[in-house]
Design brief:
Rossmann fold; 2 domains; two-stranded parallel sheet; globular
């Protein structure tokens, strides 16, 4: 077992070395936000999707576009608006009058990196057009099913402060996102760098520093990272505590309407494995699980009205659960 873990650690170090130039190149454009960038990379190599939430003007879209530009892959951006139709995303069939046949015109979802910008501005029927694509990695157009490119990575953004002209994502769709990441303001020193780059003509054009084949190679390594049975039990206990907090003497039952789904357990393990890989380890520690717990559970725990009335947030509940569940 020790030799196998050592072999996995060597693989993890090689993968981390491949990812390092990608992170460095993105930081030439984006000042700070290292935590957010790491979460995007973790979701990418774990083959998941990311919902990025933050106020306007903090470079959510720029970060995602820069990530796509640094990878030699197909990229498409969809600006979600209230008048968008499902066919505008998935595609449709067009009748050809010359030979009386229907031709399939594929939509922008047929790409490797899809930026769904301001996803909560489109109505539910448009949002649901992404459900099959995100989960099954395929699209059905008028009865015919077409596979999506591999890898397929959805990065969606939303603005939490506006209510007019927005449609909250249904729980069934948010559950398809591996992470929900909250992006905050930069620090004063980071904002000074932003001013230098964007007000004095010092804009940096990011280069393609990694190929899709290398991303696929790393994605194949992530599931192989070793997770001990005790770590898996720790993950299932964390998730079960969101459903039955009373069983663990955690006084949160009045504040939780619904706990996390089994998909949370899957993404906690995969996220922890990717987190360990980025740090050059071939095995998972409980700290790896803790590192991704908030981003995995944040959008999978539904609060009660009492929690909202008492200004108790999801992150506060996750903090309490992590603090209360014994670490193996």
């Amino acid at each position: 077992m020790n030799s196998e873990i050592q072999s996995l650690t060597n693989l993890a170090k090689e993968s981390a070395d491949i990812l390092m130039p990608l992170e460095q190149e993105i930081q030439q454009v984006i000042s700070g936000q290292k935590h957010i960038l790491e979460r995007l990379l973790i979701a990418l190599i774990a083959d998941g999707h990311v919902l990025l939430e933050g106020v306007p003007g903090i470079a959510k879209t720029l970060m995602i576009k820069t990530l796509a530009k640094c990878i030699d892959s197909a990229f498409c951006r969809i600006q979600f608006t209230p008048d968008l139709l499902p066919a505008d995303i998935t595609g449709t069939k067009i009748f050809n009058q010359q030979d009386c046949t229907f031709t399939t015109v594929k939509g922008p979802v047929f790409t490797q990196f899809l930026l769904a910008d301001e996803i909560n501005r489109a109505p539910p029927k448009v949002q649901s057009a992404l459900l099959e694509a995100m989960q099954e990695r395929q699209v059905t157009i008028q009865g015919e099913t077409y596979p999506l490119p591999d890898p397929f990575f959805v990065l969606a953004t939303e603005n939490p402060i506006e209510q007019e002209g927005t449609y909250p994502l249904p729980e069934a769709q948010t559950d398809r996102f591996m992470f929900k990441v909250l992006m905050g303001y930069p620090s004063k020193s980071e904002e000074l760098v932003i001013l230098d780059r964007f007000t004095e003509g010092n804009l940096y054009a990011p280069r393609k520093v990694i190929a899709v084949a290398e991303i696929k190679k790393i994605q194949a390594v992530v599931p192989r990272i070793y997770a001990d049975i005790e770590v898996k039990k720790y993950v299932t206990t964390l998730v079960d505590a969101t459903r039955n907090p009373g069983d663990y003497r955690i006084p949160l039952a009045p504040y939780i309407r619904f706990g996390a789904s089994p998909r949370a357990s899957i993404y906690l393990i995969l996220g922890a494995k990717a987190h360990a890989l980025i740090r050059g380890r071939g095995f998972v520690l409980p700290d790896d699980v803790k590192a991704v717990a908030h981003d995995v559970l944040r959008h999978r725990i539904l609060l009660s009205y009492l929690a909202e009335a008492e200004n108790i947030t999801v992150d506060m509940i996750i903090d309490q659960i992590i603090k209360s569940v014994p670490v193996p």
